[in-house]
Amino acid sequence: MATIRKRGDSYQIRVSCGYDKNGKQVIRTKSWKPSANMTPKQIEKELNKQAVLFEEACMNGFISSATKFSQFAERWKREYADTHLKATTIDTMGQKIKRVNEEIGHLRLDKINRRTIQELIQSLLEGNSKHKPLGAKTVKDYVSYVSSILNYAIRLDMLSTNPCANANIPKVKKKQREMYTLEEAQLFIDKLIAKAPILYQAYFILMLCSGFRRGEMCGLTWDNIDFDNHIITINKALYKISHKGDILDTPKSETSNRSVKLTEDVFVFLKRLQEFYQQESQRLGTYWNENNFVFKRSDGRVISPLAPNEWLHKFCDNEGLKYVVPHSFRHLCASLMIDAGASVKSVQTSMGHSEASTTLNIYAHAFAKAQAMAQEAVASNFKLG
Asked: How buried is 47 (Cβ within 10 angstroms: 0-12 exposed, 13-18 middle, 19+ buried)?
């Protein structure tokens, strides 16, 4: 049976867990502090709940007072992340663990409170002698990582609340994405067709016209290309994973599995690329790595998702073109669809977004512009002066 002692403005819950091999009684303790606005009745009710949960935890071996965050984070990865999250998500979170453990890894789970999380946020924002300051979006990702671990602790009855809830994180300022104007995009295409190898002609023209993500582009195989009906199907993607290299996995979300119909002109470049590979296979013989990927290195192996960006940067420098990241081609594609009058649902489907709200949030400016033009067209039908 748990016993409760009042200690100042907090309470200590004590549970006897039997005796060790030397005959000494094993006592586990947990501190709990009520919120300032709780009534005596609410305190009594929550305190009894905490005592019951802590006793059950002790009896089941889940002893929150003895578990450090860093230890539990390893357990969370093994028991939850490795079986429920995508490899890319685990990789991204894994890059944050070292910094988080420096800040709170030594703390017991039940000692992590809202103040702890707020101090973590401030440290990430301000930086220190070892680490540079992080932006609000990155800090938000760090807190999301910590929150996921603590939510798992709640599921195991090791915690009753998540101190990351309602954390004070600075609002993320939306940056205007830099992308080509229609004229700049046409200049890029002209230079691309005139001077680039067929691999990158096909790659960037397809990206510009389809809005596919870079991982989806590199994961394409020839069985995804329907030359007769001019349809391309996305059902996998290639990702760069730390310490593992490039791995083939499912697309970003379930709705990222999609089929998109494109103009015949795009397939002309894909057909040229296919014919080029056939020539290279004959020329290189056994040195050619035969596989079904659409975008390949000079020896036939699939290109890394990072390779096109490296090539693009050099190409733009050499040709005196404005450099934009390849992902901006995706945004240009969506913006052009919106300008042409495409609905939110159509853009959502083409981009592979899981929610229409995602499409609206990302392309709010483009939709607002299209709406203004539509309203102007309506007004032009009337004589108002």
From this structure: middle
The two three-digit tokens of residue 41, written as one number: 């009745």
72-75: long-range pairs with CB below 8 Å, 24+: 72/109, 72/149, 72/153, 72/158, 73/97, 73/100, 73/101, 73/105, 73/149
User: Which pair of tokens denotes residue 91?
Assistant: 């990789």
The helix or strand, by DSSP H or E, that contains position 87, with its residue range, turns out to be helix 87-94
Amino acid code (one letter) for 19: Y
- CA separation for the pair 303, 322 (Å, rounded): 24
Q: Can you give the pLDDT at residue 371? A: 58
Cα(37)–Cα(303) distance, integer angstroms: 59
Distances (CA, A) of 167 to 99, 103, 134, 170: 18, 16, 17, 10
Of 239, 229, 294, 238, the closest CA to residue 259 belongs to 229
Contact 150, 104 (CB under 8 A): no
pLDDT score at 347? 80
Tell me the CA end-to-end span of the chain in Å, nearest whole number.
85
Let me know: does 363 contact 334? Beta carbons within 8 Å.
yes
Looking at every residue in the chain, the average pLDDT score rounds to 86
What's the pLDDT band for 110 if we cut at 50, 70, 90?
A: confident
Which candidate, 235, 203, 208, places its Cα nearest to that of 221?
235
Helix axis angle for 182-195 and 307-319, nearest 10°, is 100
Cβ atoms of residues 159 and 109 within 8 Å: yes
Specify the higher pLDDT residue, 220 or 362.
Answer: 220
- What letter represents residue 83's amino acid? T
Each residue of 63-88: pLDDT tens digit?
A: 554 578 998 898 899 889 888 888 88
Which two three-digit tokens encode residue 34? 């009520």
Q: Identify the CA nearest to 158 among candidates 83, 71, 38.
A: 71
